[in-house]
């Protein structure tokens, strides 16, 4: 709820700004993983004119393990900056963190777009690209955490809009890929147009952020007193877990928070007979209460990142050369995953099953391990060890549907159940722990992808 004396958000400009900022935070991750076939093509050819944005090439490019490295180097910064939050947020002003991150991400995406037109041998091209992935992911982690800090001062509606923007980032990247492939221009121009798209998105994010101080509604909420601002950003991700009334979560593996109720004026409900507990509760005590839910969250993301996109991006259509083969992976891997993942996350808005006391949750999470061999036994060309047991496209599409829906639902469910397992004054610590374990699961999955790739 908005404060009664708050000004109106004229023409919903602040809401639109936060929606675009949410989109901008996850465009880098999604545009890089969706373009894995393009990077594989560049690494497989010494002549950049032979590159193809949507074609899967595996043999020479596989020597670089590019899809494994891009997954790992996209997730490690999230874990590292989760651990370094307190130092960064105390030393660097909020405006510097947000604008600086956006500008660095923009410059690195411009570099990626320029490289489309530049002939670079596979080795240097690989080094430049993975370095860009690392720095873009690092600054994206800083950007996302800083914006969550600002959302802590805004009404909950703006958190929902921010999350909606994040949720569309993956779908937007997949659609941009399909549009560039279907444009009819040559492959090089198609790739250039694809990488210019996130540059425009980041520029729009910069404009939106710069416009906030000029909007009366934004100034009203973002003008925090120094005593209120200190340490607020550190705890925002945890505070966003505290509401049980709405159950919406982000729509990408890299989204590390669950903003559910951000109303700064809403006082937490405290039982009359329960005395106020001074200080922060023990991390060890909170961990003992939520350890099983946290472990489930780690396992969900470990399974997801161990095969997506490292293994799933290698699957090709068994239909043979043609238009469907060219569009198969962008549609059936990236677009399908993001749409169904979004659907799975939205299901927790209607029901939460199993509940926090049920032992079915670990069973459901454990069953997702089966997706690892299922995807590895799909139609991946030039495998050397494992056979192909599921060559038809229908198998891969079915596996991806179940894989994406279960990822979205179980991630949302675990993030919603954790605050219910602790006392109200312990929810902040529970949220902080869940954020850490989310990042840990992402990093573990990205690391395991190297092993699974080697077993093919």
TrEMBL record:
<feature type="transmembrane region" description="Helical">
    <location>
        <begin position="96"/>
        <end position="116"/>
    </location>
</feature>
<feature type="transmembrane region" description="Helical">
    <location>
        <begin position="394"/>
        <end position="417"/>
    </location>
</feature>
<dbReference type="GO" id="GO:0035364">
    <property type="term" value="P:thymine transport"/>
</dbReference>
<dbReference type="GO" id="GO:0005326">
    <property type="term" value="F:neurotransmitter transmembrane transporter activity"/>
</dbReference>
<feature type="transmembrane region" description="Helical">
    <location>
        <begin position="12"/>
        <end position="39"/>
    </location>
</feature>
<feature type="transmembrane region" description="Helical">
    <location>
        <begin position="128"/>
        <end position="149"/>
    </location>
</feature>
<feature type="transmembrane region" description="Helical">
    <location>
        <begin position="327"/>
        <end position="348"/>
    </location>
</feature>
<dbReference type="GO" id="GO:0015207">
    <property type="term" value="F:adenine transmembrane transporter activity"/>
</dbReference>
<keyword id="KW-0472">Membrane</keyword>
<feature type="transmembrane region" description="Helical">
    <location>
        <begin position="191"/>
        <end position="212"/>
    </location>
</feature>
<dbReference type="GO" id="GO:0035344">
    <property type="term" value="P:hypoxanthine transport"/>
</dbReference>
<feature type="transmembrane region" description="Helical">
    <location>
        <begin position="69"/>
        <end position="89"/>
    </location>
</feature>
<dbReference type="GO" id="GO:0016324">
    <property type="term" value="C:apical plasma membrane"/>
</dbReference>
<dbReference type="GO" id="GO:0001504">
    <property type="term" value="P:neurotransmitter uptake"/>
</dbReference>
<keyword id="KW-1003">Cell membrane</keyword>
<keyword id="KW-1133">Transmembrane helix</keyword>
<dbReference type="GO" id="GO:0015211">
    <property type="term" value="F:purine nucleoside transmembrane transporter activity"/>
</dbReference>
<dbReference type="InterPro" id="IPR034764">
    <property type="entry name" value="ENT1/ENT2"/>
</dbReference>
<keyword id="KW-0813">Transport</keyword>
<dbReference type="GO" id="GO:0015208">
    <property type="term" value="F:guanine transmembrane transporter activity"/>
</dbReference>
<protein>
    <recommendedName>
        <fullName>Equilibrative nucleoside transporter 2</fullName>
    </recommendedName>
</protein>
<keyword id="KW-0812">Transmembrane</keyword>
<dbReference type="InterPro" id="IPR002259">
    <property type="entry name" value="Eqnu_transpt"/>
</dbReference>
<keyword id="KW-0597">Phosphoprotein</keyword>
<keyword id="KW-0325">Glycoprotein</keyword>
<comment type="similarity">
    <text>Belongs to the SLC29A/ENT transporter (TC 2.A.57) family.</text>
</comment>
<feature type="compositionally biased region" description="Basic and acidic residues">
    <location>
        <begin position="263"/>
        <end position="277"/>
    </location>
</feature>
<feature type="transmembrane region" description="Helical">
    <location>
        <begin position="290"/>
        <end position="315"/>
    </location>
</feature>
<dbReference type="GO" id="GO:0016323">
    <property type="term" value="C:basolateral plasma membrane"/>
</dbReference>
<feature type="transmembrane region" description="Helical">
    <location>
        <begin position="360"/>
        <end position="382"/>
    </location>
</feature>
<feature type="region of interest" description="Disordered">
    <location>
        <begin position="244"/>
        <end position="278"/>
    </location>
</feature>
<comment type="function">
    <text>Bidirectional uniporter involved in the facilitative transport of nucleosides and nucleobases, and contributes to maintaining their cellular homeostasis. Functions as a Na(+)-independent, passive transporter. Involved in the transport of nucleosides such as inosine, adenosine, uridine, thymidine, cytidine and guanosine. Also able to transport purine nucleobases (hypoxanthine, adenine, guanine) and pyrimidine nucleobases (thymine, uracil). Involved in nucleoside transport at basolateral membrane of kidney cells, allowing liver absorption of nucleoside metabolites.</text>
</comment>
<dbReference type="Pfam" id="PF01733">
    <property type="entry name" value="Nucleoside_tran"/>
</dbReference>
<dbReference type="InterPro" id="IPR036259">
    <property type="entry name" value="MFS_trans_sf"/>
</dbReference>
<feature type="transmembrane region" description="Helical">
    <location>
        <begin position="429"/>
        <end position="452"/>
    </location>
</feature>
<dbReference type="GO" id="GO:0035340">
    <property type="term" value="P:inosine transport"/>
</dbReference>
<feature type="transmembrane region" description="Helical">
    <location>
        <begin position="161"/>
        <end position="185"/>
    </location>
</feature>
<dbReference type="GO" id="GO:0015213">
    <property type="term" value="F:uridine transmembrane transporter activity"/>
</dbReference>
<dbReference type="GO" id="GO:0015210">
    <property type="term" value="F:uracil transmembrane transporter activity"/>
</dbReference>
<dbReference type="GO" id="GO:0015212">
    <property type="term" value="F:cytidine transmembrane transporter activity"/>
</dbReference>
<dbReference type="GO" id="GO:0032238">
    <property type="term" value="P:adenosine transport"/>
</dbReference>
């Amino acid at each position: 709820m908005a404060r009664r004396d708050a000004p109106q958000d004229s023409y919903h400009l602040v809401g639109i700004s936060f929606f675009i900022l949410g989109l901008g935070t996850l465009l880098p991750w999604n545009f890089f993983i969706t373009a894995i076939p393009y990077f594989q093509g560049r690494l497989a050819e010494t002549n950049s004119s032979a590159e193809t944005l949507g074609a899967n090439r595996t043999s020479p490019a596989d020597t670089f393990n590019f899809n494994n490295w891009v997954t790992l180097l996209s997730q490690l910064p999230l874990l590292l900056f989760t651990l370094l939050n307190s130092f960064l947020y105390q030393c660097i002003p909020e405006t510097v963190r947000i604008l600086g991150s956006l500008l660095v991400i923009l410059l690195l995406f411009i570099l990626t777009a320029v490289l489309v037109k530049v002939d670079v041998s596979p080795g240097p091209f690989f080094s430049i690209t993975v370095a860009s992935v690392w720095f873009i992911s690092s600054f994206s982690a800083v950007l996302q955490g800083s914006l969550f800090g600002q959302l802590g001062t805004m009404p909950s509606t703006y958190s929902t809009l921010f999350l909606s923007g994040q949720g569309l980032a993956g779908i937007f990247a997949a659609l941009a890929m399909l549009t560039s492939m279907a444009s009819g221009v040559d492959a090089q121009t198609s790739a250039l147009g694809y990488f210019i798209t996130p540059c425009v998105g980041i520029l729009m994010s910069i404009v939106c952020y710069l416009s906030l101080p000029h909007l009366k509604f934004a100034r009203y909420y973002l003008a925090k007193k120094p005593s209120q601002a200190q340490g607020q950003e550190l705890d925002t991700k945890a505070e966003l877990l505290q509401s049980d009334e709405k159950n919406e979560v982000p729509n990408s593996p890299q989204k590390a928070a669950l903003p559910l109720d951000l109303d700064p004026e809403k006082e937490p409900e405290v039982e009359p007979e329960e005395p106020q507990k001074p200080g922060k509760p023990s991390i060890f005590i909170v961990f003992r209460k939520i350890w099983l839910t946290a472990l489930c969250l780690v396992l969900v993301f470990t399974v997801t990142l161990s095969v997506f996109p490292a293994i799933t991006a290698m699957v090709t259509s068994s239909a043979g050369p043609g238009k469907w083969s060219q569009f198969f992976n962008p549609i059936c891997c990236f677009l399908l995953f993001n749409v169904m993942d979004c659907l799975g996350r939205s299901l927790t808005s209607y029901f939460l099953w199993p509940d926090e006391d049920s032992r079915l949750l670990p069973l459901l999470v454990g069953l997702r391990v089966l997706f690892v061999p299922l995807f590895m036994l799909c139609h991946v060309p030039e495998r050397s060890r494992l056979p192909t047991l599921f060559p038809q496209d229908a198998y891969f599409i079915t596996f991806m549907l179940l894989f994406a829906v279960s990822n979205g639902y179980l991630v949302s469910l675990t993030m919603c159940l954790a605050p219910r397992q602790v006392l109200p004054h312990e929810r902040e610590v529970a949220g902080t722990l869940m954020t850490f374990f989310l990042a840990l699961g992402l990093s573990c999955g990205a690391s395991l992808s190297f092993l699974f790739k080697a077993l093919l």
